[in-house]
Design brief:
Elements (H helix, E strand, L loop, with lengths): L8 E5 L5 E2 L5 E2 L2 H7 L5 H4 L3 E9 L3 H13 L7 H5 L3 E3 L5 E4 L6 H15 L4 E7 L1 H13 L9 E7 H9 L1 H18 L6 E2 L6 E9 L3 E5 L2 E16 L3 E14 L14 H15 L3 E6 L5 H10 L6 E8 L20 E5 L5 E4 L5 E3 L2 E3 L10 E8 L5 H11 L15 H12 L9 E3 L5
Parallel strand pairs: 4-5, 4-6, 4-7, 7-8, 10-14, 14-15
Antiparallel strand pairs: 1-16, 2-3, 2-9, 10-12, 11-12, 12-13, 13-21, 15-20, 16-17, 17-20, 18-19
């Protein structure tokens, strides 16, 4: 390095967060932890009988049933639902299976009718797996997920699987093990279980809030054009690292079309709505610290609301803009195929409020760093701390975001890009118009 050279950036590698499983055993990889220890709260569900329904297309009925048998009895590294999750029984039979024509023009009605029929037979907190062709799921994902909110007698959650995923899994042993772990973990979570928690606390006590938006839709009302959009809120309550509670809410906003908002970059929560939301959150959790993640920059209305509600009550807060669409790319060492490692962090030492965090790339497993097996160049997250009254630094916030990528119980993959705060805020925003029966508030397990 030349004399007098000044670096404006600092590099470090964050270690992959450890997860805690049954009997307080710790592992980096969710599949390793579930296989060797079992889910974190196995003691709560050891007497449970887990009943599952199946809705599938007639053309793939045989393949779907074969997958269900593997889900129950096991395959390869996945040793079967009861062995892995330590429940009393896993029950699936022909009475819990409905075949539909998924190429029918009225396919949504077919799915809904099949769901309602199975839901009547299943006990509370059961799941229905829906396996259909890719086009049907891609085109109707949100509407299919929303069917769950039309049935209020019991909590019967949905798990969607595409035909292409099913066929690939049944042709590849490693892919099948991976898919079985993913689906089984989601089912366990949806019955109310906690597959794993972070071993180290994110903060001693406090709340993380994620905010994301849908794209505005133009509608006509009383001969006037309005733009309607929904925003999603995910609240993660962390108490001394021992208790995680996650709830979501979706809210509708109407704006004059004259504002000409395009996409989601310029969207924000009006001050009155933001004040109301924050009062609800602190009224429920009484947190000493509130950290807010947003997929767009914070607006002055949002900042004023935060100061009014949190600042006036002496509650420390931080506003973190998490930008996933950025021009940055990273390349690593030759030994890892010139691919960065998940956890690589670049800090802006000049501004002290900005960082580049890689949450995809080569992974730090329980057996050391593993080369990346998928194509493409990892895309990082750009973190910008817009306001901060907490004692935490931008490095601390990066560690928190990194940890929150590990609390997604809908996958056992190590390479998860987005923290759950943003990922599920986006999902609830998409589902917000269907949440009226729940006063706009539901559990994160409904979104998996």
């Amino acid at each position: 390095m030349a004399a007098g050279y000044t670096s404006f950036f600092k590099y470090e590698r964050l270690p992959e967060p450890l997860l805690r499983f049954h009997m307080r055993r710790k592992y980096v990889n969710p599949r390793t932890g579930l296989s060797r220890a079992g889910p974190y709260d196995a003691y709560k569900h050891k007497c449970d009988d887990v009943r599952v329904g199946l809705v599938t297309g007639t053309s793939i009925s045989g393949l779907a049933e074969k997958f269900m048998q593997h889900l129950k009895n096991g395959h390869g590294y996945y040793k079967g639902f009861c062995n892995v999750f330590k429940v009393n029984d896993f029950i699936f039979d022909n009475e819990m299976k409905k075949e539909i024509n998924d190429k029918d023009n009225d396919v949504l009605s077919n799915i809904e009718n099949a769901y309602f029929e199975l839901a009547e037979k299943l006990p509370d907190k059961s799941s229905i797996i829906i396996i259909l062709n890719d086009e049907t799921i891609n085109r109707n994902y949100v509407k299919i997920k929303a069917i769950r909110f039309k049935y209020s007698k019991k909590t019967i959650r949905l798990q969607l699987i595409k035909r292409s995923t099913l066929e690939k899994a049944l042709k590849d042993s490693m892919m099948l093990d991976f898919t079985l772990f993913n689906v089984a973990t989601a089912i366990y979570a949806k019955l109310g279980g906690t597959p794993w928690i972070l071993d180290q606390q994110l903060i001693p006590a406090g709340v993380f809030i994620g905010i994301a938006f849908t794209r505005p839709k133009i509608v006509a009302f009383n001969n006037k054009a309005k733009e309607i959009f929904y925003y999603g809120i995910l609240t993660v309550y962390n108490k001394y690292g021992r208790y995680i509670d996650m709830s979501v809410r979706g809210i509708k906003i109407e704006l004059s079309k004259n504002l000409k908002i395009r996409g989601t970059k310029g969207l924000y929560i009006p001050k009155s709505h933001m004040v109301e939301m924050l009062k609800q959150v602190i009224g429920t959790y009484f947190p000493p610290v509130v950290i807010i993640h947003k997929s767009a920059r914070f607006h002055i209305d949002e900042k004023e609301a935060v100061k009014q509600v949190l600042g006036s009550r002496g509650i420390d807060y931080a506003l973190i803009h998490i930008e996933s669409s950025n021009p940055y790319r990273g390349y690593g060492e030759d030994i890892y195929g010139k691919t960065v490692v998940r956890g690589d962090l670049i800090l802006d030492t000049e501004l002290n409020n900005r960082a580049i965090l890689f949450t995809t790339g080569c992974t730090q497993s329980d057996y050391g760093i593993q080369k990346r097996g998928r194509p493409g160049t990892p895309r990082p997250l750009e973190l910008e701390v817009e306001e901060n009254t907490t004692p935490y630094s931008v490095e601390d916030f990066a560690k928190q975001v990194f940890g929150l990528t590990k609390l997604d119980w809908n996958t056992t993959d190590l390479e998860v890009r987005m923290p759950i705060t943003i990922k599920y805020a986006r999902r609830v925003a998409a589902l917000a118009s269907y949440l009226t029966a729940y006063s706009g508030i539901t559990d994160i397990r409904d979104l998996m």
